Amino acid sequence: MEKGALLPMFYLPPVSYFTALTQYKPNILMEKFEHFPKQTYRNRANIYSPDGALTLVVPVVKGSKVHTPTHEVKISNDFRWQRLHWMSLESCYRRSAYFEFYEDDFARFYHQRFDNLFDYNDELLKMILKFLKMPVPLQYTDEYHRDHPELVDFRNTIHPKKEAAVEQKPYFQVFEERKGFIKDLSIVDLLFNQGPQSINYL
C-alpha cells in the first residue's frame, strides 16, 4: 500500500496543503482529536492585499484550562468576523479573473452562522476540492496518536511561521506589481486568479 498523509483541518488552507493532498491522495487521514494549537492555519489564512500578505483569523471561544480537542473548538461569534473576512476577500479579489465565478458558493460561508470550527473548515475544504476537481475521500482519526508511522505527518510542518517546503512557480496575482509574487498564500488566491487551471498548477 502506498504511503498516505495525516493532515490537520485548516481554514482556507495554503497552497502547500493541497500539494500534499495531491501527492498522497487517496490515502488521506484528517486529524480530529489533537489538542487545538494556537496561531496556526487551523483558524487563519493569508491572502494578498494591496499592502502584501493579510491574515484572516477566525476567532475561537477561549477554552478552559483543559486542552480542547480540535473537533470541539467553537467559533466565537461575538463580533462580525464573517463580514470582515468577506469584505477583505471582496476587496482583495474583486479584480481577479475568477472571483465572480466562485463568489456565490463562498458567500454562504460568510453569511450563514457556523458554531463549530472543524465542521466549518471541513465544509469549506470539501467545496474547494470540488472546485479543484480533486476527488479526495477524506477519512478522519477516531482518537489521538502522537505517532503515525504509516503516514507522512503534516500536523506541525505546514505552519505560518515556517517556510513552505515545496517549491512554487509564480502565477499571476492581482497585486504582484506592488510586492511581487507571494508564495504559499491561501488556496483562494490560486483559485480566484487561476480558476479551473488551478489543478494543473498543483
Please render the helix and strand layout as text.
Blueprint: E1 4-7, H1 15-24, E2 28-30, E3 44-49, E4 52-57, H2 81-93, H3 99-111, H4 117-131, E5 139-140, E6 151-153, H5 176-179, H6 187-194, H7 198-201
Parallel strand pairs: 1-2, 1-6, 2-5
Antiparallel strand pairs: 3-4
List keywords for this structure.
four-stranded parallel β-sheet; alpha/beta; two-stranded antiparallel ribbon; single chain; 202 residues
Explain this structure to me?
The chain has 202 residues and is α/β, with parallel strands linked by helices. It has one domain. 33% of the residues lie in helices and 12% in strands. The chain has helices spanning 15-24, 81-93, 99-111, 117-131, 176-179, 187-194, 198-201; strands spanning 4-7, 28-30, 44-49, 52-57, 139-140, 151-153. Strands 5-2-1-6 form a 4-stranded parallel beta sheet, covered by helices on one side. Strands 3-4 form a two-stranded antiparallel sheet. Helix 2 (81-93) packs antiparallel against helix 3. The longest helix has 15 residues, at 117-131.
Task: Tell me what portion of residues adopts beta-strand conformation.
Answer: 5-15%
Distance between the termini: 23 Å
* Tally of DSSP helical segments: 7
**Rg, Cα atoms, Å:** 16 Å
Tell me the number of strands. Answer: 6
What is the helical fraction, as a range of percent? 25-40%
Q: Tell me the strand order in the biggest sheet.
A: 5-2-1-6
Low-confidence segments, given as residue ranges, are none
Q: Kindly state the mean pLDDT as a whole number? A: 93
Helix-strand makeup class: alpha/beta
Main sheet: strands, sense, barrel = 4 strands, parallel
- Shape descriptor: globular
- Give the helices and strands as they follow along the chain: EHEEEHHHEEHHH
Tally of discrete structural domains: 1
